[in-house]
Amino acid sequence: MKDQKIYIIGAGVAGLVAAIELEKAGYTPVILEGSEGIGGRMKTDEVDGFLLDHGFQVLLTAYPEARKYLDFASLNLKYFEPGAIIFGAKDTFIVSDPLRNPLKVVNMAFSHVGSFFDKVKMFSLTQELKKKSLDDIFNEPSISTYQYLKEYGFTEQIITNFFKPFFRGIFLEKDLKTSSRMFEFTFKMFSEGMGAIPANGMIEIPKMLRQRLHSTEFLFNTKVKAIQGTQIDLENGERIQADRIIIATQPDKFMKQLDGQFSPAKSVITLYFSLHKSFMGRAMLGLIPGENHLINNLVFMSDVSSAYSKNGRALLSVSILATDLKEKELIKAVQSELEALSRINAEYFKFVKSYYINYAIPTVDDVKGTIPFTECKISDQVFLAGDYLLNGSINAAMASGRIAAEAVVHSYMPIH
């Protein structure tokens, strides 16, 4: 049975984890990847002496699947300081550790962001979520995150100044419409672990997964055009006959019958600038409350990992959720906003590169933590993997790859 031809479409995190699990079960899968390398949405470029991730991405060390598949020590993780630098209309202040130790947050800084009661609420929420299992979180009724925060008793002040700018950067939408389950999950992960990046860029995560593979074959620059039954048609006209297929990317591209089954994904624009020196000077996320600005969040990547800059200049990552501006206008507008925030002349922010990421995270209406492997099955031979099946996170991408591989292994078991 183990000489079965199992093909995985997509060499992103979900596809790589599926291959790891299939190898463990004794199979030798083949991964078909449309681009020239692994990683899917998780890639890092080297440009002008900088490491540029495709969009601002963070690994949360409390992710259970990440702990299972990654060796954090070998990744040489560099950690963000918990909290945020908040660029208010009149003042800039630092709120340290609000999701991990809210009661220790310095009163003065916190009073700009929220009330004393917000601090107490934050503490009780942290304690509550520590006791709650992930299954409990994902089985709860779902309301919007905004409604959840209001019902929990948080003031509009802290929602505007902290929760909105912080979670907008994670959920990639402005109004906190994202499910309260996703909020609880993310809040729990932040309060139990750290936000981190591998020293040499996010690409190190898929690279590490690939190093765990010993017999899997990779076919790069191999674009799939259509899947019919167990037949894979490639764009170059070739035809592959498979025994089992795992589609580790959104399947409506190849399967006409799934057209229109998926909500449009959430997009983000990341602009990179270099500066002679970081004006933040610490490994922390910068947040801008309110609505009248393009920048959602910013971070000097070189403050988190010095390896992100090999030329002595500081590397600044700026995330923008939505705009109609053309690239040149956008760069100019963002440079002006950076000048207003930092009081450093706009022209000193040297533009490095922009990434317009149309598919940053999937829009998932029914957010889940896991699914039974029967739910990732399209037919007896074709299976799905990808974070869109669960929730938009690295954890979900890994879980979906594992579940799809389990489904394939199970499909070969004799029925009694």
UniProtKB/TrEMBL annotation:
Amine oxidase domain segment(s): 13-408
Organism: Algoriphagus aquimarinus
Gene Ontology MF term list: oxidoreductase activity
UniProt xrefs under Gene3D superfamilies: FAD/NAD(P)-binding domain (3.50.50.60)
InterPro entries: Amino_oxidase (IPR002937), FAD/NAD-bd_sf (IPR036188)
Pfam families: Amino_oxidase
Name recorded for this polypeptide: Flavin containing amine oxidoreductase
Domain of life: Bacteria
